[in-house]
Amino acid sequence: MKQSSILYPILIFFIIASCSSNEGPEFPVIMQPSSIQSADANADNQTFQYDDYGRIVSWNCTSNSPNATTSYSAHYSYLDKNIIKVSAEEFRTIPQTGSEETIQYVEIILLKNGRASNSEGTYNAVIHNDAGTTQVRKTYRLKFDYLTSNHLNTVEHLEVFGIGDEIEDNAWDNAWKWINYLIWENGNLKEYQDFQGKTPSYHSTKYEYSGDKVSCPIVIPQVIKFAHHLPLIMQGVFGSNSVYLVKSASSFDNNANLYLSRQYSYEFEDARISKYTETIFTNSHIYNPVTYTVIWTEK
């Protein structure tokens, strides 16, 4: 998948209901993104749908690159004020190998005081390639801890193989476990440490910010594992997002070597971001800038 893939540490998504306070149960009518489009053939094009309360109920994204095409879809159900159910799917094709991969997720997220406290979900992947068909079935648990500033501080991951009755009785006692860390400074996320299931090494992404801020910033780091979490991060379900607009994001491998950098610039209209441009640099290549147009709706 291309370097600007939606599954890399910082991705292009939008704050939805997080534009308002996360402390109360009401959802005021505000302007929210309904789509993001680019004329670039390698862009990530997205659409968003909301319920009458302005909560995200559907998100779709198509990500194209010379190496792969990936489509994402997610649907969100609000079972009560403290439970969100997510049903999501990813479909990926890799032309060079003829490989096709479909991943289905079902996740229940529990809220406490308006923000996620923990969740449990299932991961069901089916991979077709020249070697045949492979299926991977896992169940995962996530636990979220916050600073007193309402910023997400740690994400604890646990995974076991199997779904439902396939899981052995003592599986969770021997689960694959790791913790990712978020470091904040003056209300902005400065570094995300992703241990990727490995200890003690980790990948990290460090962020720099402009002096600009708007009620709904749109370049947000991905700090929870799967793409379907991103619209909920935007809504403030996982605490407050950074105050200022991201200017750059630099990604380092587990030996602290820089391997990827992204830079951002913005255009504004009516105190909202109307367009933004992402330029990606790697150790061996500078990609053409990609400009996205943001379409807003009153929700």
List keywords for this structure.
single chain, 299 residues, mainly beta, 16-stranded antiparallel β-barrel, two-stranded antiparallel sheet, 1 helix, 18 strands, 2% helix, 57% strand
Number of beta strands: 18
How would you write the strand order of the largest sheet? 2-3-4-5-6-7-8-9-10-11-12-13-15-16-17-18
Cα-atom Rg, whole angstroms? 19 Å
Q: Low-confidence parts lasting 5 or more residues at pLDDT below 50?
A: 1-10, 12-25
Report the sheet with the most strands, covering strand number, pairing sense and barrel closure: 16 strands, antiparallel, barrel
The H-and-E topology, N to C, reads as EEEEEEEEEEEEEEHEEEE
| Quaternary organisation of the protein chains | single chain
Query: What would the average pLDDT be, to the nearest integer?
Result: 88
How much helicity do the residues have? under 10%
